[in-house]
Amino acid sequence: MTEEPQEHDSEEIAAKSAVNAGPGAPRQNALRLVAAALILRGAEVLICQRRPDQPMALQWEFPGGKLEPGESPEAALKRELEEELGITATVGPRVTHIRHNYRHGGAVDLQFFAVYEFEGEIENRIFHEVKWVRLEDLPSYDFLAADRGLIRDLAQGKLL
């Protein structure tokens, strides 16, 4: 059964995908494909805070990033977790799939995957802060607006 992505309208996700595209990348009105990780440790999940110099400064998000051409979401996520956190992850099942449309055209397609196992020690390579948080405590953090529905579902035990 194929899960239909949830639809959202969000300026924040446009800026996130522009950051993930890298410096000098053109802003396109095309669909951007993004994979993100719910790295789990018992009843806790790893969350990451954006740097003060980024769009949506100091808001929280999950690690991950844009798929490269020809790359599967799982391969992209494995690469991104190595780049961002210095870990070699075993990418688990897809937890949810969300599509965000933004006002200036285009959209981003977000796939969130569970990660229950990884090798190496988590090293903060690009974020302002990373921390383990209990799932029920997620709503007390200032997450990107695009993630708030997911945050509510995770806190209520609906997805994991």
TrEMBL record:
Reactions performed catalytically: 8-oxo-dGTP + H2O = 8-oxo-dGMP + diphosphate + H(+); 8-oxo-GTP + H2O = 8-oxo-GMP + diphosphate + H(+)
Cofactors (names): Mg(2+)
GO MF term list: hydrolase activity
Span of domain Nudix hydrolase: 30-156
UniProt xrefs under CDD domains: NUDIX_MutT_NudA_like (cd03425)
Source domain of life: Bacteria
Chain intervals for the UniProt region annotation (Disordered): 1-24
Alphabetical UniProt keywords: DNA damage, DNA repair, DNA replication, Hydrolase, Magnesium, Metal-binding, Mutator protein
SUPFAM superfamilies noted in UniProt: Nudix
Main enzyme class: hydrolase
Keyword Lyase: no
Family to which the UniProt record says this protein belongs: Belongs to the Nudix hydrolase family.
Record protein name field: 8-oxo-dGTP diphosphatase
UniProt organism field: Acidicapsa dinghuensis
